[in-house]
Specification:
It is built from two helices and nine strands. By secondary structure, the chain is mainly β. The protein has one domain: Sandwich (Immunoglobulin-like), CATH 2.60.40.10. It is elongated and about 75 Å long.
Length: 142
């Protein structure tokens, strides 16, 4: 090996040794295939439960009854064709609405960093977050 090759190797090793170590629970994701969708009953009363029935073209995840602050979570892998889509029929009392909770190119772009797509269903509509802290209203009930 010549001196230049040794210098390059030394600089690479030195640079790597100076980089901060990642905690075990942190990931650097370039291509993400695994996702989790969380449906949370964000209503302020337990008078009526949130009833949700989620499915995709290939999977029926069944009906789930969620009382105040309860959550239904499912996980999946994005298909290789880029066509993965899950939607949920939501009912609360007499109100009913169907929303897409995950679509490649839509929600997948919004929750790519964490791999988590959170939906808080509330009296005034449907809120989205990728971290369960910062919420954006996406849909009204009507």
């Amino acid at each position: 090996m010549n001196h230049f090759s040794l210098l390059v190797i030394f600089l690479i090793i030195f640079h790597i040794s100076q980089a901060p170590a990642l905690a075990y629970d942190e990931e650097i994701i370039i291509l993400r295939f695994k996702y989790k969708v969380h449906i949370i009953n964000g209503f302020t009363s337990n008078e009526n439960p949130l009833i949700t029935h989620c499915k995709s073209k290939d999977n029926d995840l069944g009906e789930h009854v969620l009382w105040m602050n309860n959550e239904f979570m499912f996980k999946f892998r994005k298909n290789i064709f880029g066509t993965t889509c899950f939607w949920c029929d939501m009912r609360h009392g007499s109100a009913q609405k169907t929303i897409d909770v995950f679509r490649v190119g839509h929600e997948s772009n919004k929750c790519h960093g964490t791999g988590n797509c959170f939906w808080s269903v509330r009296e005034d509509g449907f809120y989205f977050s990728d971290n369960n802290q910062s919420w954006i209203k996406m849909y009204d009930w009507v």
